[in-house]
Amino acid sequence: MDTQAHTQTHRHTQTHTHTQTRNPHAAPATRACAPPPPPLPARTRGAVPAAAARGAVWEGGGPGPAECGAESSRPLTALWSRFPPGLPSGRRRHLLLLHPTHAPSPPAPLPPARRFKGAAAPAGGTMPNFCAAPNCTRKSTQSDLAFFRFPRDPARCQRWVENCRRADLEDKTPDQLNKHYRLCAKHFETSMICRSSPYRTVLRDNAVPTIFDLTSHLNNPHSRHRKRIKELSEDEIRTLKQQKIDDAFERKQATQESNENNEQNTVSEEGGEEQEEKVVPLTLEERENKDYLKSLFEILILMGKQNIPLFGHNVDELPEGIFTSDNFQALLEYRINGGDEVLRKRFEMTAVNLEYCSKTQQKQMLEICENCVREETLREVRDSHFFSIVTDEVVDIAGEEHLPVLVRFVDDSHNLREEFIGFLPYEADPEILAVKFHATITEKWGLNMEYCRGQAYIVSSGFASKMKVVATRLLEKYPQAVYTLCSSCALNVWLAKSVPVVGVSIALGTIEEVCCLFNQSPQLLVELDNTISALFQDNDEKGNELKKICRSQWTGRHDTFEVLVDLLQALVLCLDAVSSDFSVRWNNFIVGRAFVLSSALTDFDFIVTIVIMKNVLSFTRAFGKNLQGQTSDVFFAAGSLTAVLHSLNEVMENIEVYHEFWFEEATNLATKLDVQIKLPGKFRRAQQGNFDPDMTSENYYKEILSVPTIEHIIQELKDIFSEQHLKALKCLSLVPSVMGQLKFNTSEEHHADMFKNDLPNPDTLSAELHCWRIKWKHRGKDIELPATIYEALHLPDIKFFPNVYALLKVLCLLPLMKVENEKYGAGRKRLKAYLRNTLTGQRSSNLALLNINLDIKHDLDLMVDTYIKLYPDKVEFQDCIPSNNSEVTNDA
């Protein structure tokens, strides 16, 4: 009994390494509510019971057996305390197996760990995230310490094993050692380790571990080390010492030959030598060049953050022979005047009518800034593994069309983030666009599309069909990159933008221009308020509601076309009043725009279009609104899609009747505005002498607008809500609040099959989901059910349900799910702000990334080193370049 007590005390003083490796075949993540195992015979120390290997035991964390339906209702902590205090944990676990019904949970469950897939853990008990060296308890989770695999080269691997003095490793192949065993950097001399970049640490080709602790275990004779230390004979010890001396001599000789100027410090320790290579100091010229480049990068970063365009005055605007510094050079001169010695020495003797830094060099440095900033985000995305791709509307940057790209991922703090990562040049050919889109994401940005779990595209009218080709091509290669709607765009707006009817695209553009004009002028909004008040004197509530809507971004609402139909008369009267006002109240621009927009709003083609779109999209309005609601709304909306499609199909079957009502509504509105009901002029001109007298306006708009619009919307709903997408949305029943509304009668296992390969322990999914349901079904009265995925991911015990955690992470990546915390969805808002506040000709894809991602830290040293590596010929001092708007004479 004394020995057991001593062993138990020692177990609590050991590191997590020893506890973790005691049973390498068990997955300590989640207890599965499985049938009780049969009684087991007493086991010897260190042996693994067969039941444990089969996963038939509860393994720390999650709800206890009582919660999973066990008959006993006694508190688990009380049961655990009934064990004798000196009883080892292994014996307690054995008793737990013998009496599973009354088995208590340990008070401090182990954190979850992922099992080996397809193979058992290494026989020695050492896992890949633990150091294989004797008496070393370091783990690879320590980010400040590098871990290295055993080499595959047989001769070199044999030397590693001999130096480790692990008898249990001698019978393993180099491939087995390389796969399952690691050594931390503490066992290598510093001269054997190279840092090729701030983020990459590598061993030299001839590196052999030489630094080991082979004696500390002797101070504790009762310890049970899994890493057995081999006892060496005197001949073996002499051989090892001689080998260390020979290795040290060879390294010393090689170092002297490669660089005779390096200083060497040799320290003898247990017959071995440790060498430290000092970094070659930079020359004065190299240091000044680095400081100079760092100053230039600081200026570029400042310009990006503050949204300062690179170029100042246009050359064509200046008289001939006049030199004016651009914004970059002006800031550079400001730093010189502010006391920057590096820049002053470089340029103090330079003519003032010369460019200090060429446009080419500025562009090269900006590209490096952009790549470094993007890499900060992409590194987090790769660490998270899974992600989704979202694109926004095509924008004009310096005269070229570009596609903004954002990425969604869950960071280390379990927060869903949506970050802007750059612009892609837009291609008119959809097939070429699809190829370049894929190449940029995978090759240039280094993302593995196998981990992509969602894709969404918000596009302007006319671009929808091309982006759909991109989505289709990606789905062919990566079926799990589900094509979905984006949470930032209302379903009805998205459907309207995708309708392949020219009249709808023109109507959407007109609506945007009207909204933009009124938002630019507060006086115009006041004028519109007065007009609304006059029209809705008998209905103040309706009038006040419309006034409030006019001061918001109402063009992005689910009921945009309904609002427009209600506002149309007020808008026309207001614009007519402004365009016919010859006083100095309105400037010429507003008067001109008011006249043009009033004419567009009173065109019968426009009126028919908005009325038909209002009626067609009324069938999807409630459905789309729920998709942007709470998590439970999204879940139940997925089940109502069939009803929506049924309604639209019924409309299509009876289109004659429905269109007659819609056209009558359009003619009544046109009559109220004194608009002539007629066929479009472009249609009559196209007919020339072949005009069909039987072609009426009603029939024309039925064939040109109503029928193709309904057919398109039905097909789009089927495409965007595919079987895979609906399956994923059904998995939202994992969220406890949805479970509660379903009375905890859910079946996620069937729908979660599509994510089976994304789970750490798919074999235990069914049992884990059962425990997850029981946990919330039998919660305390004062415990509220988490209402969102965000809340569920931040539960303290979510790590005890690794499969549930993995499923929730993948589900929230779907672009349809909104970012709960606005702080982590600011990338899109900053993108909109940049485009809104920057003139088209002054936009820069490089500076835009710096401006939008202004909270990312900038590694100036990395930028400088990258520039020196990519452009070594430009690091040396270069003569200044004459500017395009300067004159340099020979008499200077």
List keywords for this structure.
36 helices, disordered C terminus, DUF4371, two-stranded antiparallel sheet, THAP_Znf, DNA-binding, six-stranded mixed beta sheet, 6 domains, globular, alpha+beta, 8% strand, disordered N terminus, 892 residues
Structural class of the secondary structure composition? alpha+beta
| Integer count of domains | 6
Helical residue percent band: 40-55%
**Total beta strand runs:** 14
- Rounded to the nearest angstrom, the radius of gyration is 36 Å
| Principal-axis shape | globular
As residue ranges, the low-confidence spans are 1-126, 261-277, 877-892
Percentage of β-strand residues: 5-15%
Distance between the termini: 99 Å
Helices, by number, come to 36
> Biggest β-sheet: count, sense, barrel?
6 strands, mixed
Mean pLDDT: 78
GO molecular function: DNA binding; zinc ion binding
Region (Disordered): 1-71, 250-280
InterPro entries: DUF4371 (IPR025398), IFN-induced_PKR_regulator (IPR052958), THAP_Znf (IPR006612)
Protein name: THAP domain containing 12
Explain how this protein is built.
The protein folds into 6 domains: 92 residues, no CATH class; 131 residues, no CATH class; 97 residues, no CATH class; 125 residues, Nucleotidyltransferase, domain 5, CATH 3.30.420; 227 residues, no CATH class; 78 residues, no CATH class. It has 36 helices and 14 strands. With 892 residues, it is an alpha+beta fold. Strand 12, helix 14 and strand 13 form a beta-alpha-beta unit. Keywords: DNA-binding, Metal-binding, Zinc, Zinc-finger. This is THAP domain containing 12. One of its GO terms (cellular component) is nucleus. One of its GO terms (molecular function) is zinc ion binding.
